């Protein structure tokens, strides 16, 4: 038994923003150019339903904008930077991942032409998965798995992009595993596509250095 297990095997550490795995530049947003109220995480967690819904609608509309000019891209990135800062709050993360914002994030991960936006969307998804304390019914997690897996497969030789996508995939896997421990019966919406495991195993087999240590 002493040969099989080591103490480090029993220690769980986060994937997203773990300095031992990947060094992330500090996230800063411009509150004056945010186009939505720059509420603190504490303020967001205590918003009444009317104010919360208004906040979500404005955030989703900004992310879902089809404008393709540089200003629109900067506005989206600024909003994503802001979401990164509030997603580390457990109550806010739980409210956001269980809201209409999560499908919009998935859509941006699929459709955004700007890879900077896709990278920040993946980071927001990973942070939400890491910090949420509860995952509601009918949240399209399987869709997120499928999309992240496809993007990693399509960009397998681009280690920089994989560094953006793999942490989000890992945090979602851990979230699903945690949810399955809580539930007596597995939910269909939480099933992990086999392709996700295939891609991860391929990464391990290739021995590619995926993260900056």
TrEMBL record:
Entry keyword annotation includes Kinase: yes
Record-linked InterPro entries: ARM-like (IPR011989), ARM-type_fold (IPR016024), ULK4 (IPR045906)
This protein's record includes keyword Kinase: yes
Entry keywords, A to Z: Kinase, Transferase
A Gene Ontology molecular function term of the record: kinase activity
Top-level division of the source organism's lineage: Eukaryota
Protein name: ULK4 kinase
Gene: Ulk4_0
């Amino acid at each position: 038994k002493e040969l099989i297990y080591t103490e480090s095997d029993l220690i769980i550490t986060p994937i997203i923003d773990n300095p031992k795995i990947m060094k992330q530049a500090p996230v800063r947003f411009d509150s004056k150019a945010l186009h939505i109220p720059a509420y603190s995480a504490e303020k967001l967690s205590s918003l009444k339903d009317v104010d919360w819904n208004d906040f979500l609608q404005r955030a989703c509309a900004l992310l879902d904008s089809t404008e393709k000019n540089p200003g629109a891209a900067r506005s989206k990135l600024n909003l994503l930077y802001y979401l990164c800062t509030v997603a580390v709050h457990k109550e806010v993360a739980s409210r956001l991942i269980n809201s209409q914002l999560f499908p919009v994030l998935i859509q941006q991960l699929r459709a955004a032409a700007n890879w900077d936006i896709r990278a920040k969307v993946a980071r927001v998804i990973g942070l939400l998965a890491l910090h949420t304390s509860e995952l509601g019914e009918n949240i399209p997690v399987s869709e997120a798995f499928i999309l992240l897996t496809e993007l990693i497969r399509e960009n397998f030789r681009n280690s920089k992009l994989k560094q953006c996508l793999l942490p989000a995939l890992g945090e979602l896997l851990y979230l699903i595993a945690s949810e399955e421990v809580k539930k007596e019966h597995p939910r269909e919406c939480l099933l992990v596509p086999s392709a996700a495991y295939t891609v991860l195993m391929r990464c391990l087999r290739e021995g590619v250095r995926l993260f900056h240590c």
